[in-house]
Predict the 3D structure of the following.
Amino acid sequence: MRRLFGSVRARATLAATLVVAVALVAAGAAVLLSLRSNLMGEAGTQAERSARAVASELAAGTPYDKLSGLDGDVGPVQVLDEDKRLVAVSEDLERISGTDSERVKAQPPAAVPRGDADNDADDDADDSGSGEALEPGEISGESVFRNGSATVDGETEDYRFAAVEVETHDRGQLKVFAGAPLAAEHGAVRSALTVMLIGFPLLLGVVAGVTWLVTRRALRPVEGIRREMAAITQSEDLARRVPEPDTHDEIARLASTTNETLAALEKSVERQRRFVADASHELRSPIASLRTQLEVAAAHPELLDLDGAVEDTVRLQRLAADLLLLARLDAGERLGDAKVDLAGLAREEAEGRTGVTVDAEPVEVAGSRGQLGRVLANLLDNAQRHAREAVTVSVRREGDRAVVGVADDGDGVPEADRERIFERFVRLDAARSRDDGGAGLGLAIARDVAVRHGGTLTAGQGPAGGALFELRLPLA
């Protein structure tokens, strides 16, 4: 059960079915109440019409035994006097409830003195059910409605009773009760309820089925994406891509984003593999050279090249430091937020270097002083390797940016290679000697540090025709 409802399709189907069920129950209750109210109103209108017809005959002085409404064709009728005595009743009435009297046999009317008839009517006007003072021959404009039951000719039914008061000339104030059967109302409500009890489950079944099918169709691309991702994970083949549906909806965007993530991951893994391969290759050379010298020295101590061994060791140490720094940068090492004076830092890095001049104005940026110093050192090392005679360092402010320029008077960098030189372990043809050109990590480290500090590092042509490297960083 938990696995079933762990499915998005199952949860969506259940939710849709519950929402429709609640809506159907609310709508069904409203329909039943409205239907019952309307039918009850129609029964009340029919009962009131019958009561007023009898009251009209009484107001006209028709004797009780001549009343046309007592034949039982319309419904049960009772006529009560002021003392609630049953003075007239419809034929074949065997039992009644819901009126002012449960009697079914007429009683002799009480004698009313001729001289006091009018006075008694006036005195008892306040005791009438409606509280309305009536003139002789007048019928009350208000009706009182009640629900009850009656047995007529052996058949018991529920009725809607209407009570109407009438003031007569010689019999005082009378109250007429007439009933209309509620069988039609009960039958209609039962029929509607039966239809709902049968139709609602069928409708809910249709809603559940349609929701299940539609959801399955909508989630089919997601299942395809899941299967392909599982296959990629199992095969470790990052060159594969998940299928992208042509629906231009959220699922299509999910597939597109997944493929972009796979592409970025593939690129990152390939870069990592290339980095490991290049690092192994670069480390192999000084290690092999150092081992050879040590083995020769062990066999022939007089042939030990101590300076060469020290030089290879220094190269190995520098390469290990560069690789460690790149690893920290790739791991997202947190930068410091200290303020760094680029002018002072440029002078410190240029100090002791031959042919390097500095033209700098005070500019402060936020970041790691050690990493920014490494950027300037790498740029100066690169410039000195390619310069003929002079290297110029400039520090200035441009808007909200600090700009550091390192220019040389060498041959410059071909335009086609101005981006490639920032890749790791890349050395141009003129700088392929490991002894002179390094391992090809200096510019890659410099750009990575610049990007980590929210800046840029670009290569161009300097004023003297050589290379110009510009480092742009946001001001502190």
About this structure: The first helix runs from residue 8 to 59. Residues 114-128, 430-437 have pLDDT under 50 and may be disordered. The chain has three domains: 1-235, 250-330, 338-474. The radius of gyration is 53 Å.
